[in-house]
Every structure is written in structure tokens, then in C-alpha cells.
Design brief:
Elements (H helix, E strand, L loop, with lengths): L2 E11 L2 E10 L4 E10 L2 E9 L5 H9 L6
Antiparallel strand pairs: 1-2, 2-3, 3-4
Length: 70
Amino acid sequence: MEKKLLSQENITLGAYPGIEMNLWDEKERIFLTGRVFIVNQRLYMLLVGSDKNPQVSNVRKFFDSFELIQ
């Protein structure tokens, strides 16, 4: 797999720490943006892919729609 990490930053979802990353997959020719959180021994992963640089506003809208409820 020819994936290149374009950026990575620490983020939070409420009180929970996470990571957001942007990748480029050369073989598949696709941009990937993902968020990962570990909450109470569970892994939550959100991933958006696009064959061109995705619209940031649409990616944010998708990520912002995710919330943890108890």
C-alpha cells in the first residue's frame, strides 16, 4: 500500500482525546480523512474518501454529526 500521511493532529470529542489524519493513497488515487477515538475500551473510527481533494465543509459536517451518547 502506498499511503502517504499528509497531516495529523490531536483532537477531542467532548472529554475524549482522538486523532484526525489526512492521507493520500497513491495506488487507489484517493484522499482519505479520518478521525479515531478510543472511549471506554471501544474504538470509534470515522473515514471519508474522495477521488479528489474533498470539500472541507462537507467533511466537517459529516464529522460534526457524530456524537457519543450514553
